[in-house]
């Protein structure tokens, strides 16, 4: 009986021992499993962390048209500086700055006593020449008649004819001198060449005036025709192809805030200035209300159409390399594809790409200098939604 009890107790001990051993083995297996899983996870995370994380943006199409603002110079339709055509003293002036004048209107009178005396002398010289010529012509006519009857010699007749011709030439010269002086005397009256406004008067009564427009000559008046006005704009070469006939632009003046004026293209220089690489364009704007003043500055607003494949990128997407200007794009497997691009304009914070990119592509922001073709990258979490635009 004791033997039986002993065997049962021994059997129970063995069962407990086996159970404890099995439990310990399971615990060891579970610990080993977790250790292996942690090692695998760590290795995977290490590999995953080794793949660079990048931020990206979807390339979108640029605007259909672009508004550019260029400086413009406002000039009168006609503008002239009035100089004296004869020397003398200002006798009287009839207009001042701001005066509106018509073509042919008297602006001032110049007193020229020496010129008047020269004209009187020229008229007296002409009368003398005409009297001498009249006698010479009648004498030559009589001698020609006498030669037919052999009453005079041929030599004497030729002398009389030659003298008559010389005196006729003297009459012509005296008449031409008289006419020249008459023209100069007529310049004593300074008249307006066209309708306009007197913008400057630089003379006064009694002032000595020298004829001509040399450095020693002093201008009398400046006159400007302010309706319509001419607007001159230097258009960059990149926009020159958009300057076409019947083009209209808007003008903005600081002295007229909130108001725009319409100007129409008149003509261009038809050539690029090699110094500034610009095309000089001339526009015309109506100024019937005299709101605008010649000689001023204006901002000219152009609505320039853009090509359909034009896109814009921020400057932090650009890579400057030996191959030229490039950007890093992503394919569907998040692998890097480097693309060369050409830009048409630089706006400072962004550039306009003319070729090399199409709307819908994914471009890396702030790419590293070491980035290369085919490199595997990961998108930053905030950018994952942009993989499929």
The tally of strands reads: 21
Helix coverage percent: 25-40%
**Uncertain parts:** 383-389
End-to-end distance: 87 Å
Determine the structural class based on helices, strands and strand pairing: alpha+beta
**What's the number of helices?**
3
Fraction of residues in β-strands: 35-45%
Task: Name the features.
389 residues; alpha+beta; conserved putative lor/sdh protein from methanococcus maripaludis s2 fold; OB fold (Dihydrolipoamide Acetyltransferase, E2P); six-stranded antiparallel beta barrel; 3 helices; 30% helix; 35% strand; rod-shaped
Folded structure, characterized:
Strands 1, 15, 16, 17, 20 and 21 form a six-stranded mixed sheet that branches. Helix 2 runs antiparallel to helix 3. The protein has five domains: 1-38; 53-63 and 309-386, conserved putative lor/sdh protein from methanococcus maripaludis s2 fold (Beta Barrel); 84-110 and 191-219, OB fold (Dihydrolipoamide Acetyltransferase, E2P) (Beta Barrel), CATH 2.40.50.100; 113-187, Helix Hairpins (Orthogonal Bundle), CATH 1.10.287; 225-305, Elongation Factor Tu (Ef-tu), domain 3 (Beta Barrel), CATH 2.40.30.170. A hairpin with a 4-residue loop joins strand 11 and strand 12 (278-285). The protein has helices spanning 2-50, 113-148, 154-186; strands spanning 53-58, 65-82, 88-93, 100-101, 106-111, 189-191, 196-201, 208-209, 221-236, 248-252, 260-273, 278-285, 297-305, 311-314, 319-321, 324-330, 336-340, 342-346, 350-355, 362-365, 378-379. It is of the alpha+beta class. The protein is 30% helix and 35% strand. The two termini are 87 Å apart.
């Amino acid at each position: 009986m004791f033997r039986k009890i002993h065997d049962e107790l021994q059997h129970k001990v063995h069962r407990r021992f086996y159970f404890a051993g099995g439990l310990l083995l399971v615990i060891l297996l579970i610990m080993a499993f977790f250790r292996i899983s942690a090692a695998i996870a760590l290795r995977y995370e290490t590999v995953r962390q080794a793949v660079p994380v990048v931020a990206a943006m979807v390339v979108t199409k640029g605007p259909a048209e672009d508004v550019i603002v260029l400086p413009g110079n406002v000039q009168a339709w006609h503008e002239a500086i009035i100089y004296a055509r004869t020397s003398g003293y200002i006798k009287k002036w009839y207009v001042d700055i701001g005066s509106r004048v018509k073509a042919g209107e008297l602006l001032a009178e110049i007193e020229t006593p020496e010129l008047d005396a020269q004209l009187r002398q020229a008229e007296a010289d002409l009368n003398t020449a005409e009297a001498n010529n009249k006698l010479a012509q009648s004498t030559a006519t009589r001698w020609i008649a006498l030669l037919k009857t052999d009453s005079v010699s041929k030599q004497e007749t030729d002398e009389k004819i030659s003298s008559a011709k010389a005196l006729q030439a003297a009459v012509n010269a005296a008449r031409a001198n008289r006419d020249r002086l008459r023209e100069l005397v007529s310049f004593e009256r300074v008249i307006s060449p066209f309708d306009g406004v007197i913008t400057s008067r630089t003379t006064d009564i009694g002032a000595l005036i020298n004829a001509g427009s040399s450095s020693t000559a002093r201008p009398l008046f400046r006159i400007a025709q302010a309706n319509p006005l001419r607007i001159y704009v230097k258009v960059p070469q990149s926009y020159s192809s958009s300057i076409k006939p019947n083009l209209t632009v808007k003008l903005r003046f600081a002295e007229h805030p909130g108001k725009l004026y319409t100007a129409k293209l008149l003509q261009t220089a038809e050539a690029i200035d090699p110094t500034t690489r610009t095309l000089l364009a001339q526009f015309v704007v109506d100024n019937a209300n005299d709101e605008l003043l010649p000689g001023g500055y204006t901002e000219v607003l152009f609505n320039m159409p853009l090509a359909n494949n034009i896109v814009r990128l921020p400057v932090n997407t650009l890579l400057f390399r030996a191959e030229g200007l490039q950007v890093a794009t992503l394919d569907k497997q998040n692998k890097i594809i480097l693309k060369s691009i050409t830009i048409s304009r630089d706006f400072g914070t962004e550039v306009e790409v003319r070729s090399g990119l199409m709307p819908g592509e994914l471009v890396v922001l702030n790419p590293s200098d070491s980035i290369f073709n085919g490199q595997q990258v990961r998108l930053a979490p905030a950018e994952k939604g942009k993989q499929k635009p």
